[in-house]
Specification:
With 187 residues, the chain is of the alpha+beta class. The chain is built from 2 helices and 12 strands, in the order H-E-E-E-H-E-E-E-E-E-E-E-E-E. The strands form 2 sheets. Strands 1, 2, 7, 8, 10, 11 and 12 form a 7-stranded mixed sheet that branches. A hairpin with a 6-residue loop joins strand 7 and strand 8. The longest helix has 23 residues. The protein is globular. About 18% of the residues have low confidence.
Length: 187
Amino acid sequence: MRENWRSKLSVLAGASALALSAVTATPALADDAPVSPQEVQIPADVTIVEGGAATDPAGPVESVDPAGPAGQAEAVEAAKAVPSSSTCLGSTAAYGTSGCFQHNGDIVWAGDTKKDGMSAAVGVYTDYGRAEEVCVNKLGANTWATCNKNYREGGDVRLRVLRYDGDTGKFYQPETWSGWIPVDGKY
């Protein structure tokens, strides 16, 4: 008789715990969702670098002069270049932004994947104390921009992708971080 009472008590305790976890773990309803993007705080001393039009990731990265005779067509085509998965490491993506690091040439790629009035931003952090920088793609939706940097070969970099509003100078979520990427490309 006593064992029957214990089993009933344990079933009741388990059901109570399950009900409590269901109540506390319920996702927010659509009505509770934030109306506007959530701002992300970036240190004030972070350098913001405007990325240039991307070119063939295997070749050198050059700026395209959009004011030149064929410059506008070249700029549009160059901005649509996509980084090669074999040369671009640490691919990281969040809503509206993709980023990666090309170790041969120390090039940061910033891809804007959403037409929402904001720009793609890829923050670059090092493991050896170099000042943080953010590569911003202001070329528009469905484009890639590159920022050509020079990092210490024995160091590692980490990418942070998020959205950037050039009108306000503010950064927004969602954001994602990559793991540490060796600058020399050797894992």
